[in-house]
Design a protein that fits this description.
The chain is of the alpha/beta class and about 160 residues long. The chain has helices spanning about 15-30, 40-45, 65-75, 90-95, 110-120, 130-140, 150-160, and strands at about 10, 30-35, 50-55, 80-85, 100-105, 110, 145.
């Protein structure tokens, strides 16, 4: 009987509380994770061929769109889910044109992020373009929003 490899999800955001909260959520549902505080930290790591990247758009130094372009130039087709508190339609459209699986605006729900990850890990399924409609439809009282410091602290605490 063969072993099933657990997908590695890399989270890249300059806000450590966001990284910790998303890492905790991903680990709570069985994914392996690696967190990074910058695109440069990710690039200088061994990278271990993540199955998916969860990537902030705006960070000091190299931003998320620049990292997406660099990976594309290296022919790295790792699916990318963008997260941002500063997204606009132009940025979202550029990310989608370049192949982003999803573009989630902070705060976003756990359900929206998990749905985006499932989409990224399931080749051939319809890709998500934005979170606006889906996020509104999937929120429930038990489905807290991610992307705010308080919500991320609760996720981190509840999953430890």
């Amino acid at each position: 009987m063969g072993t099933t490899e657990v997908p590695l999800i890399s989270v890249i955001d300059d806000d450590q509380s966001v990284v910790e909260g998303i890492v905790a959520l991903m680990e709570s549902v069985g994914y392996a994770t690696a967190g990074f505080g910058s695109a440069e930290d990710f690039l200088s790591s061994s990278r271990s061929h993540p199955a998916c990247l969860i990537l902030d758009v705006r960070m000091p130094g190299m931003g998320g769109l620049e990292l997406q372009r660099r990976l594309a130039a290296e022919r790295d087709e790792t699916p990318i889910i963008f997260i941002t508190a500063h997204g606009d339609d132009e940025v979202s459209a550029e990310a989608a044109r370049r192949g982003a699986v999803a573009f989630l605006r902070k705060p976003f729900s756990q359900a929206a992020l998990l749905a985006a990850v499932r989409s990224a890990l399931a080749p051939g399924e319809q890709q998500l373009k934005t979170s606006d409609g889906a996020t509104a439809k999937t929120r429930t009282p038990a489905d807290m929003e991610l992307g705010s410091r308080d919500a991320l602290r609760r996720v981190t605490t509840e999953t430890k």
